[in-house]
Amino acid sequence: MKLFFILLLCIPLITADLQIGFYNSSCPQAESIVLSVVKKHFAGDRSITAAFLRMHFHDCFVKGCDASILIDSTKKKKSEKAAGPNLTVRGFNIIDEVKTSLEASCPSTVSCADIITLATRDAVALAGGLNYSVQTGRRDGLISNAADVNLPGPSLSVNQAFQFFAAKGLTLDDMVVLLGGHTVGVAHCSFFRDRLDNFQGSGVPDSTMDPSLRAQLVKTCGSRPNNDPTAFLDQNTSFLVDNQYYKQILGNKGVLQIDQELALDSSSSGIVAALASDGNGFMKKFADALVKLGRIEVLVGGAGEIRKNCRAFNAPSLTSSRKQLG
Ligand code: HEM
Ligand SMILES: *[C@@H]1O[C@H](CO)[C@@H](O)[C@H](O)[C@H]1NC(C)=O
Ligand SMILES: *[C@@H]1O[C@H](CO)[C@@H](O)[C@H](O)[C@H]1NC(C)=O
Ligand SMILES: *[C@@H]1O[C@H](CO)[C@@H](O)[C@H](O)[C@H]1NC(C)=O
Ligand SMILES: CC(=O)N[C@H]1CO[C@H](CO)[C@@H](O)[C@@H]1O
């Protein structure tokens, strides 16, 4: 009898996994609520596609896709948000708005980690990418420490950057396809300024950068010396999810060093060329790679919690949603 109960308790642990339509019965409106808020914001600001892609990447690469990136720092502890590479992640207010709307319809049901995943999917589709099906059922993490943030920097070689992806179970193809996220969005000059005049401390520009792009970036970055301006990562279709990024880097118009390295390094140049010449293939691969990104080290079943407020862990008195494991 006792053994029977132990087995019974174990079943949810064994079968718990992400599923397409995880909220079909617990919150049937979940996906349409996310879409309506994202759509509203996208109509006024197409740059939110970039915001969510980067937020999703940073969330999933630090402690898995568990919304740890959304936690605000407290006086006592600096959360992931307070770490250098996270400084310029944006879109937090839109996530809050989605959460408020979801809590009104389905309290304590839809995780913040799933909100990031769904908002990314919707924003990609609105920007011309595929409207792919994405699994849900992630739970929110209980840890967010600035010290845990260890993300690849923009001046790494392809092989160095790949070590970060391999550690998350991703392939070199996955990395090259995911860096296609740089088909939208911007980079602050501080992340690539050395390439314009003092590449790796050499005193001269990065010779791999197209001279006309360099001239343009010198103008952009030099214009307001007291702050840190931004430049588009994709010089042509800066707000569209398409394969232009790969065409740009093949033409030496990568803004970040890692972007340019991707086209030049013999390990990745073939993948880049293939993606540059197959727009539809890129769309499908990008969607598949985002689904794979969204599965990294997720919490499912009774792990973690469903946060009421994406910026804070539930108070101990609210932990009824923190299911007890048998
Ligand atoms: C080796 C891997 C990567 C490196 C070194 C890297 C580095 C960077 C850097 C330095 C920026 C500029 C940030 C700023 O100035 O605010 C940036 C922006 C961005 N990254 Fe990446 N990134 C990587 C992978 C990815 C991946 C996998 C995605 C998503 C699939 C992604 C999506 C973005 C987007 C959309 C932006 C623009 C953000 C905005 O406009 O607010 N990146 N990245
Ligand atoms: C939710 O509904 C969709 C569409 O009908 C279906 O494809 C999916 O398998 C369902 N998921 C679950 C977990 O019921
Ligand atoms: C994606 O597909 C769903 C289901 O067909 C649809 O309701 C939604 O409007 C589509 N999203 C976008 C951004 O087109
Ligand atoms: C910009 O992108 C459009 C649409 O993909 C393409 O037709 C055009 O050739 C591109 N222009 C440049 C200068 O890359
Ligand atoms: C807002 C924020 O978190 N800023 C921090 C980002 O990281 C840099 C460098 O680690 C810190 O100096 C900032 O305080």
From TrEMBL:
Coiled coil: none
Main location as per UniProt: secreted
Keyword Transferase among UniProt keywords: no
Any one Gene Ontology cellular component term annotated for this protein: extracellular region
Residues holding Ca(2+) 2: 183, 234, 237, 242
Any one Gene Ontology molecular-function term assigned to this protein's record: heme binding
Positions of the Plant heme peroxidase family profile domain: 17-314
Name by which UniProt lists this protein: Peroxidase
UniProt lineage: Eukaryota, Viridiplantae, Streptophyta, Embryophyta, Tracheophyta
Gene behind this protein: LOC120276495
